From TrEMBL:
Annotated keywords: Signal
Pfam families the UniProt entry points to: SBP_bac_3
Classification via Gene3D superfamilies: Periplasmic binding protein-like II
Domain Solute-binding protein family 3/N-terminal: 32-76
Organism of derivation: Salinivibrio costicola subsp. alcaliphilus
Span of the signal peptide: 1-22
Protein name (record): Solute-binding protein family 3/N-terminal domain-containing protein
Protein's UniProt keywords contain Manganese: no
């Protein structure tokens, strides 16, 4: 019984993890609501700045992941 349960768990894990490993991890698109929430995130001219952006850049700076941030209205952010 334990062997069958272990085998089923291993099979399910391998089947479910396949699509996750196929994801493109070279870029990350972050979407926030269009409202400015200084000091967390806000538009300054054409740039998006703030504490949240600084933390994201610090986390991914050595990983080779290109982080892009956009602040459209929340409804559009959820559906894109």
């Amino acid at each position: 019984m334990k062997i069958a349960l272990l085998s089923a768990t291993a099979l399910a894990g391998s089947l479910l993890s396949g699509p996750a490993m196929a994801l493109d991890t070279s870029s990350l698109k972050v979407c926030g609501d269009g409202a400015n929430w200084p000091p967390f995130h806000y538009k300054k001219g054409e740039n998006i700045e703030g504490y949240d952006i600084d933390v994201l850049n610090a986390i991914f700076q050595n990983s080779g992941v290109d982080v892009s941030v956009d602040l459209p209205p929340w409804k559009r952010c959820v559906f894109e």
